[in-house]
Write a structure and sequence with these properties.
The structure holds 2 protein chains of 2 kinds. Chain A is mainly alpha-helical. Chain A has 6 helices and 2 strands, in the order H-H-H-H-H-H-E-E. Chain A has helices at 2-19, 33-42, 46-65, 74-84, 88-101, 106-118; strands spanning 128-129, 133-134. In chain A, a hairpin with a 3-residue loop joins strand 1 (128-129) and strand 2. By secondary structure, chain B is an alpha/beta fold. In chain B, strands 2, 3, 4, 5, 6, 7 and 9 form a 7-stranded mixed beta sheet that branches. Chains A and B meet through helix 1, helix 2, helix 4 and helix 6 of A and helix 1, helix 5, strand 4, helix 6 and helix 7 of B.
Amino acid sequence: MKTVISLLAVFVFTLLAGCITPHNRPTYIWQNYSSSLYNLKKTPTDTNLKNHKELLLNIIEESKKENCRVPPGVYCEYGYLLLKDGQKEEALRYFDLEEQTYPESKIFIKNLKAYATKNTNKNDAAKIDDGKQIEENKGNDNKPGKTEGN
Amino acid sequence: MRNKAVFLPIFIFLIVLISACAPTKIAKKDAFPEMYNERPLSILVLPPINVTTAADAKEYYLTTIAEPISYAGYYIFPIEVTSDILKSVGLFDTEIVSELHLQKFKEFFGADAVLFVKIVKWDTNYAVLAGNVTVGVECVLKSTTTSKNLWQYDGIVVVDTTSRSSGGGLFGLVVNVVATAIATAKTDYVPIARRVNYLVIRSMPYGKYHPGFNIDRDVEILPRKIRTHK
């Protein structure tokens, strides 16, 4: 009798386990990324841009401290803001970090770096030409540190 | 005889258990078989197609999508960077994106899949005594290799902003009308958009960075078209 009941208990547990979907997920520290970016879109001021940059850096540092993978795109976005600021070398370093963390970004980072090397400033010169090359346009002398107007 | 007396309640218990899990659900592998065939690892989010009258919905919505997709286990390309690039080549309006472009997204970004989002609701309904704010999206994930639809889902979240707080009488009514108007006008779309995203992306099979990658085939989800009200 005991074995029958214990077998049934196992059966019940199996059933239960089948119903509970695993709710664990990758551990990322995003902090309030979404709100910060939203603020920047809503009111694109220098202060909000500065705040957003600080937040990105903070995400990177906190992730390292907590031994988490830096969320996808964060290294790259931070590097991109540095690039807009004219800090090309630093920008490339962050692009590399993105690729090291996420090998899926390899092709993208390669193309982005090609673009960065051609254009030391600003972001309005990228061009997908037959899907392969980013070509430069003009506008190398645009002021750094400005966000795109919405 | 004694056995039967034991089994009966246990069987009833089992049936109750099973029925609690069962109705109208579908396993992820049956809902999105192509997703398991192709196993995309990286997702490029295109600027949404906005069919609402809110001109700013597109930019604002894009601030909400990276987190949920990363939590589903995918590599998501940095939207701030990819949007700039797409803008510069005149592809910020994705209504014009065709299959030819899909191939280019693969070549230039190395993206396995591209997410098309259509914003179908981004509005406020206000009718003196009642108000609500609604955000709704339809999502389609397309393969850049086969152009097939890998996953699609949609969701709408309606947030009720009707004020029912104060007491009765004419004065109470007036207070409520004013409170509803203020609450409706002040309700922010972006937190609602975040809830819609979580609702929708919950159904997506997990990607490489999720601990459930490849073992979620039998996880059951609700078929498309969910509405939640609050």
